[in-house]
Amino acid sequence: MLRGAWLAFWIAAMPAMNVSAADEFSFDLSQYGKKAYEFGGYLQGSAEHIEVDRDAALSALSFPDGAPDSYQRYRGVLELTGKYRWDSASLNTLWHGETLDEYTGNRHDTRFYELYVDADPGERWTLLAGKRALRWGKGYAFNPVGFLERPKDATDPELSREGFVLASAEYVRSFDGPLQTVSFTPVIVPVSDDINDDFGSEKDTNFAARLYLLYRDTDIDILLRSGDSRADAFGVDFARNLTTNFEIHGELAWFGDRTQSVLDAGNTLVTRETEAFDWLLGLRYLTAAETTWIAEVYHNGAGYTRDEMQRFYDLARATPTTPALRPAALAARQAGYGTPQPMRDYLYIKVSQKEPFEALYWNAGATSIINLHDSSYTLIPEVSYSGITNLELRGRLALLGGGRDTDVGERPNDWRAELRLRYFF
Amino acid sequence: MQFVILFMSLAMAVPAHAGFDATAILKEVDERMAPASYEMYRKLINIEPDGKRKEFVLYTVKKGTDKMVALFLDPPSEKGRSTLRLGDNLWLYIPNVGKPIRITSLQSVVGGVFNNADIMRLDFSDEYTASAAGEEDGRYILELKARGPAVAYDRLKMWVDKQTRVPLTIEAYAASGLLIKTLHYSDIKDFGHGIVRPAKLITDSPLYKGYQSVMLFDGIRPREFADEVFTLDYLPRVGELRQ
Prior knowledge:
The structure holds two protein chains of two kinds. By secondary structure, chain A is mainly beta. In chain A, 13% of the residues lie in helices and 52% in strands. In chain A, the strands form two sheets. Chain A has an 18-stranded antiparallel β-barrel. Chain A has a two-stranded antiparallel ribbon with strand order 12-13. In chain A, helix 3 runs antiparallel to helix 4. A 13-stranded antiparallel beta sheet of chain B has the order 6-5-4-3-2-1-13-12-11-10-9-8-7. The longest helix of chain B has 12 residues. The chains are: A mainly beta, B mainly beta.
């Protein structure tokens, strides 16, 4: 009797158990079809502790009333992406909002990084008009041939960046044989008081183009830019896997009539012609233990020499005692001396270990950018965790090394610690 | 007498694998698993020892023997990432980075037991040469050897169901002989268009003790694509191919 009751129970329970087993791994395809609207983005919060180098030249310039020993910086970022499709066209947006609270005050900024319409009349054509960030070149940290881009943060190259208003077309063809792919992308970038006013000083209609070839397993780009807003430019780049885990890449850019703002002996900014070439040579290597090495040597033809930087440091350091010099020092910083890599030659190295000690979803690594003229450097060890769906945690420590009168040694920080939390939706 | 004993011993030691053509069976396995050109949806589930899960959804298109693109549709943190494979070359496109970078098949895009080689695998017969290793319990056992160094696993041992000609178990080994992972196919399902194949793949690895990765297959159907779909310029638009 008891056995019969158990049998009846199991027979009754079996359908339910089957449902449970089927539900263990479910896959509802209807959620993933193409929809007219798409919406997403991320919300990010970060906190930084900054230890100030009170004796640095740029501290004197950044803190005219005296530098603190340290301070905290809090940043909130909201990025929203959207797409609306109709027929073979779509409207695309990337909106960026940011609020920053730090020692020198609060700042807020909201803007569309991208807002454009594109149309795909077929697989071979794309037409685009609006504000769009184009990324040209093969380098990870630096892109000499990024002729239509805003500057990249070499310490965090995956951050999204604001684009320029432009119109472009793209035509692509594939072939059988050694030449596998050809694509051609002409671009028009207008500059006026209302459009792209920070692209260049001259109001003009600028043209650029990119010819891409995949030839014998090598990516090759030939790029140019022409117009009065910026110097004419011509560039080539390449990338190729020498073996399955060893990639090399390079970029070479030539600029015509390239000028640079330099401080003269009287601390006045003057314009002079400078070296026409920028170049980059890099590699990416993956070891059997899933350690990735990225190394790039970058030559900035419009970079300053040590003597030129020394003049700027002397000027900046003199501003607390001679406030009349402050406008000239600020103008020099704005004109190029204050850019993240203002000098001529840098070495970028990034090493990252996926899932160290078999810790799933963890990544550990370090990035270093070394000034090859004065041996000053930044070293940024970091650890990140992405084990919680749609949540990404990252901790970073930025150590700045170098003596007096060196590129990194004269920056306002000794070190900086950052904790960042990003939620995707 | 000694000769007879020796002959009988040798005959018993030789596995019964001379009776089938391993190359033909591997070709048939490829044909059963998917048409030459197709689109497909996959869900990847990483399961940790404590039962915690992380899921990813991919849309994949493939053409011929050497062209494949996979696009992440979910979760939002991965959405828009796509991987292009042309023969031995792989590129990864990340929307924020905005340009494709070259990667290697050994890397893991999602973390866990699956790596790019599992996600971007071409037909077995394009990547491996097959030899017969034996038969047992209604299954052929094939020994697969990588055709070149670009293939992620140097050697596979594959158990193929004799009736359906689909793989049931695959062991993946490194060149050193180390077992990297074991793949278990199950839930043979009729996807229509004459495609009858496993809908589920469970993978475990001695390198990730206690972890499991599951791949669910759906929406597999034959579809022709222009060659231009498999180019770097098309990567930001792969999602538009969905219907």
